[in-house]
Amino acid sequence: MDQLQSEIEARTDDLVSLTQDLIRIPTLNPPGLHYRDICSLVGERMGAQGWQVEMVRAEGALGDSFKHPRWNVICRLEGKRPGDCLHFNSHHDVVAVGDGWTFDPFAATLSDGRIYGRGACDMKGGLATSIIAAEAFAATHPDFAGAIEISATADEESGGFGGVAYLAEKGFFDPARVQHVIIPEPLNKDRICLGHRGVWWAEIETKGHIAHGSMPFLGDCAVRHMGAVLDEMEATLFPLLAGKRTAMPVVPEGARQSTLNLNSIHGGEPVQDADYTGLPSPCVPDRCVLTIDRRFLIEEDIAEVKREITAMMERVRARRPDFRYEIRDLFEVMPTMTPEDAPIVQVVQDAVQDILGKSAEYVVSPGTYDQKHIDRIGRLKNCIAYGPGILDLAHQPDEWIGVQDMVDSAKVMALALRRLLG
Fold first, then answer.
1. pTM score
2. What positions does the domain Peptidase M20 dimerisation occupy (predicted)?
3. Domain covering 198-333 assigned CATH 3.30.70.360 in the classification
4. For a disulfide at 93, which of 29, 108, 250, 349, Cβ 3.0-4.6 Å?
């Protein structure tokens, strides 16, 4: 074992402690709690070691408010001579806890080589791993070239607009500043994630006419219209999507086809507050809204993806008198995939081979992550996701990260640093 790997082994307890400290800050999104606290923890640690630290609030970005400001931190360590910059980007926000936990979700309990907690694998373990890797590399290679950056950014779980998107707009991922990016998402330590599928979110609204519930024949029920839309989806749209397949190495296998999730549906009278003790009013619902989450493949065109929905709605309209509808775009992200021969891909592939003794598997994520903003806004294509953790554990009760997985991934990251900057 060489000096760099030994240095990381010696920092295992620090890696565990740092991961626990990060998990114990409940950065729940929504609404966006304790963002400044976690950025301060990272910034103070790195600043004490001589890193340049910049705290950036995404003022005016989607989600930013006086009550819940969107804070990000970027830490940079300059080398002794000119060279490339390798940036490790991790999001610091976590999703809601949910039910079914047997561990305290914010206690960061260490048990049998695993650290349990919300955000353990997605992705505070990855953030801690990148910090330890960078610190170990800087300690053993004080004369390195170029620069290292570590960022902890907001709101990836809700689109990243108050985090990486904002920073990319401000030039933090300009190719003149940063040349290589690793996002330590939990894709397993023996996988390199090259990119992700595309996504289109939209609302479909069916329209009706309100009337007294005792005389529904005087109205027009928007919920029944939506029921016809759902029937048409089952009959024609879902079979169509199941037949679309990609050459992208998307994981898991089921995501190699186009998919559609019916995210939410609501029609009729709004849901009342929990303390309301009365009955609903008797009305025919005059609107029903369905929110859809369409994931599409790199082989598909976004315009055709949208035309498929419109064509489906027109088929329903042809069969139903007085059928009226509206489709509203919410947001869209194009698929992206970094080439396998890109410098960061090859460097990490070689490091995985050296540390784990096998070739890394190339994969593509079924859902988007912050690579979309680095690619589209930052115009930086040399970006991958690589980090410790099992993807299937993300957003689950009793989420955990394995200590040995973090140590191994830290060795891979540090070796990538040495090959790019050493």
1. 0.91
2. 195-315
3. yes
4. 29
